[in-house]
Every structure is written in C-alpha cells, then in structure tokens.
Amino acid sequence: MSTKDFTHTQVGIVGAGPAGLVLGHLLHRQGIESVILENRSREYVEGRVRAGVLEQGTVDLLIEMGVGERLQREGLVHHGVELRFGGVGHRIPFDELTGGRGITIYGQQEVVKDLIAARIESGAPLLFEVDDVRPTGIDTDSPALGFRHGGEERELRCDVVAGCDGFHGVCRDAVPDGALTLREHVYPFGWLGILAEVEPSSDELIYCHHDRGFALHSMRSPQITRLYLQCEPDEDIERWPDERIWAELHARFECKGWSLKEGPIVEKGVTPMRSFVAEPMQHGRLFLAGDAVHIVPATGAKGLNLAVADVRVLADALTRWFAAGDESGLRGYSATCLPRVWKAQHFAWWMTSMFHRMPDDRDGFMARLQRAQLDYLCSSRAAATSLAENYVGLKHVVLATEDQIV
Ligand code: FAD
Ligand code: PHB
Hints:
By secondary structure, the chain is of the alpha+beta class. It is built from twelve helices and 19 strands. Strands 1, 2, 8, 9, 10, 11, 17 and 18 form an eight-stranded mixed β-sheet that branches. α1 (18-29) runs parallel beside α6 (108-122) and α8 (303-324) runs antiparallel to α10. P-hydroxybenzoic acid binds next to β14.
C-alpha cells in the first residue's frame, strides 16, 4: 500500500522495533487496522544487533501469534546460567528452581525479521524511512501523525497513537510538560559488546564478576558468540583494537579448566547503562510502550521482554475498546504494566549492582559486599530461586480492573 492510499487508521504506531511490530501483529489478528511508521530503513532495523535473551512468556506469545516457526527451529533453549566469581563457576539451574521454565537465545534482529516478514505478508502498512514524525492532538478524540515520506508531507488521522519509538523517539516528548513523572538512574559504566564468528565456549551464559570489571559470555547460534565487557560509559571504541578486547576477556573470564575461544570479530559497539521510567504510560489518546517509556540496564536481559509484555496488555485493551466500546482496559493500561516494569527495573538494577566494578570503590568495600551476595546466591536455594524466577520472567498479567487504577 502506498502512503497515498490512506489518511486514517485505527492505531497509528510509531516505531518498527519489537514493541511496534508485535503490537501491529496482535491488532491485525483481531481485525484492527494499524499503520506502522519507522524512520530507519528495513536493512538497518533488521541488522541492528541488540538483545538475545527471550523469556518463556515472550517465546510463548510469539508462537501463539504464528511468528515462532524459525524461533522454535533455531532458538537455543537454556535451562540454567553460570555465575562466575573468584575464578570459579557456579550454575543456577532454572528448570529445577522454577518448575521447568527456561529462556531462549534468539537475536532481537531475528525476531524483528520474522515480524516484518509476517507484517508484509499480511498486507498491512509498514512504512520505512519516514521523516519528521509529529504526533498531534493527543489530548483530543482525533489525534494524528504528521510525517514526510518519499519527499511528500502526509497526515495520518488515528483513533489512537501507540508510541513504540524507543528511548530517543518523539512520542514521549509529545506529552505536555508536567504530565509525566520521569525517574532515572545513570550508571557510571557501559558495555562494550562484540559478535565473534566462533562457537560459544560454554553451553550456557556466563555472568562474570571480576576485579577488572564485569564480563558476559552469550551467544547467537552454535557458530556465533556474543561477548560483553564493562567499560567507561563514554568509551571510545577506537581505543579497543581486537587484541585488547580478547586480552581483557581472557583476563576476566579466567577459570581453571576452561578457555575462551577466539574468532574474527564482526561487530563492535558501546552501550550506556541506564534505568528510566516515565509514569503514567499514557496521555490522552497516546499510549507509550517499550523503551519509549522505560529503559533497564542490560544486565537483567529484560528490555525486549518488557516491551512485548506492554504491547500484549495494550493490544488486549484496544481490542476491548474497538470491539465493545469498553474503555476500562485503556484506562487501566498504565496501572497494569507498571508493577511488572518496576519489578524488572529492580531485578536489572540488582544484577547490575552485584556484578559491576564500582568506579569509586577505593578500599574494595563494595566488592566485598558483591562477593558476599554472590556467595549467598550460590549457597542458598531460596536466593537462587529468586534470581531464577526473575530471570526466566514473571508471568504475564491480565488487565487491571477499574478499582485497581490509581
Ligand atoms: P526499539 O527496539 O528501540 O525500537 C524503536 C523503533 O522506533 C526503532 O526501530 C527506531 O528506529 C524507531 N524510531 C525511533 N524514533 C523514531 C521516530 N522519530 N519516528 C519513527 N520511528 C522511530 N533486552 C532483552 O530483553 N534481553 C536482552 O538480552 C537484551 N540485551 C540488550 C543488549 C544490548 C547491547 C542493548 C542495547 C539492549 C538490550 N536489550 C535487551 C534491550 C532491548 O534491545 C530493548 O529493550 C528493545 O529493543 C526495546 O524494543 P522497543 O521496540 O521498545 O524499542
Ligand atoms: C545478549 O545475548 O545479548 C545478552 C544476554 C544477556 C544479557 C544481555 C545481553 O543480560
């Protein structure tokens, strides 16, 4: 469909990341129209290397939505994770501690590719390389999205706008000053991440605490390893030639009887660590979801999963509204999502605080506390169960009812 073919849609979705694409697909399955506007190219969004850990609830939803075929074929199901400190590894068995639950390793860009393919097959509109998206009239019953596409100025009138445009998007800023409360914590470190063409050195993820800083061993496939190193928040990637990266990884992961396999580095990037929540997640006819409204530090592997959990609630609420004029779901959207958001926020902050070297820890007090916490986790079934339950993901919740809305 060309941009000329429409001037109105039920749900105008800004952003073709996991949040926007899952929302569009869920709505399509309910017979609700949407248009997705994305400012980057298809190649760019399909190639953007980010998350890798999918919670059980995310996997179940993608399968139920009919976009899980390749995920089931190629995703790597993990039943545990290793915590490494003092040069010794300790396994946390998720399945044993959570009644058989686990996680699946499948790259975010693969999820995005599968969702884009399904969207295109459905014939529902998804526009790439859209410029200057402007939400207007969100306080009225007829919000709109102004934008430019193919050099032409357009306006799309909507019943509802879904802001799924990530942390640096425009939708959150469309809310009038003072209507949202913003809470933020910026960590004094970042992650340097690489993809290497080499088989993973371990069957499971390794979260490693070391005096030199945190390190994480992950993977994308039996041939591709994903590795991260704690670095400065504004680290200059030019200061990290491949040899330095491998030397640092070897130093941090050092463990008797285990060695890290090296291979060609095919991707490198630095990510800052931030916690952020904007409340409420709605203003008028604008509903915010995913990174547009909350950011978690990557240590808990929760960002993509939270984005999916948000839009699941939003799709249910919109379905009730469009089908029966029942507004209660939309009114309860924020109240339904925020408890999960804050629990994930706490888990990600806790994992981050436990594993990273604190830059101002001159006498090693914080490092001793971290080691005590890690020792406890690996010797107490109760403590390990808490980590496992949060890591595999809390159950998806149903919509809040009117009396729970504050
Ligand atoms: P995004 O993926 O950011 O999508 C937003 C989309 O909106 C983008 O396509 C963007 O181009 C588009 N957009 C932005 N502005 C505009 C505009 N003005 N107009 C139109 N379109 C716009 N999460 C996990 O759950 N597990 C993990 O293991 C994990 N690891 C991570 C590792 C790293 C290194 C990083 C950086 C993140 C990680 N995350 C992880 C977080 C996860 O990637 C994000 O939480 C997730 O991408 C959020 O999805 P989203 O759709 O809300 O936002
Ligand atoms: C990843 O594989 O990219 C990954 C894994 C675990 C995390 C963060 C990122 O906590």
